[in-house]
Amino acid sequence: MISIQGLKKNYGKTQALHDVNLELQPGKIIGLCGPNGSGKTTLIKILNGLLNDYQGNIRIDGQEIGAHSKSLISYLPDQTYLAGWMTGEKAIYLFKDMYSDFDESRMRELLLKLKLDSKQTIKTMSKGMKEKFQLALVMSRQASIYILDEPIGGVDPAARELILTTILENYNPNSILLISTHLISDIESIFDSVIFLKEGEVTLHEDVDTLRSMHGKSVDELFREVFKC
After folding, report:
1. Do 1 and 144 contact (CB within 8 A), yes or no?
2. For the chain, which domains are there?
3. What are the pLDDT digits (tens) for 183-221?
4. Maximum alpha-carbon separation in the chain
5. Is 181 helix (H, G, I), strand (E, B) or coil?
6. Is the N end or the C end of the chain the one with fewer CB atoms within 10 Å?
């Protein structure tokens, strides 16, 4: 579903990604792990067509990044992108208009579950409420690929279990679910496989069960070992 070959990306003289090669298959929940500055968000933005000045070859569903790939991907960025003046209702109508796979009835159910008021404007929502509302929008699509950038980074520890449950109960199980995070211990239980990015390079891409049997460690313990200062 996603094929990446020889991907390189620089910001001026700073190397963000170097020779990234990945093959990602559907039906998997994949953790994209690395410290701040490792290249996670750059990779995610490239996959979503938000950055195009890179070197290398990327195919999504056999095609170059463009209108087709954007129709397949449901993307949760690491920052709020909805206009502050917009009400939740207007955001819902926007998603209905933009995405043919958007399920409004599912969205309404998630609003109740997450205790969100769609009549409230985005600017009056707390940071955690914004995170939950955007997640509800993203998970209300029947997408082929879900890309979530730090979905639990902006919520308190008590709400993280609810966020993870919302993700697991609402994503398409035949899709790719790619989750970027540095909060490994809170989320590793749902991963089928993990990718470690270090200074723009893939240092590991392996099934979680294989990792645990090979190293006798949790993903979080292995992460701390690989990325220790």
Report:
1. yes
2. 2-226 (3.40.50.300)
3. 888 888 899 999 999 999 999 999 999 998 888 889 999
4. 52
5. strand
6. C
The DSSP annotation for 98-148 comes to H-TTB-HHHHHHHHHHTT--TTSBGGGS-HHHHHHHHHHHHHTB--SEEEE
Identify which of 159, 212, 211, 206 has the alpha carbon closest to the alpha carbon of residue 186. Answer: 159
Q: Say how many Å lie between the first and final Cα of the chain, rounded.
A: 35
pLDDT band at 229 (very low <50, low <70, confident <90, very high): low
* Tokens matching residue 94: 């926007």
Q: Return the number of other C-beta atoms located less than 10 Å from residue 20's C-beta.
A: 23
Predicted TM-score of the model (pTM): 0.93
Q: What pLDDT band is residue 78 in, cutting at 50, 70 and 90?
A: confident
Contacts of 206 (CB under 8 A, 6+ apart): 193, 194
The DSSP-derived string for 48-78 is: TTS----EEEEEETTB-SSHHHHHHEEEE-S
What does DSSP say about strands 2-11 and 14-24: parallel, antiparallel, or unpaired?
A: antiparallel
Amino acid identity of residue 144, one-letter, is S
Amino acid present at 13: K
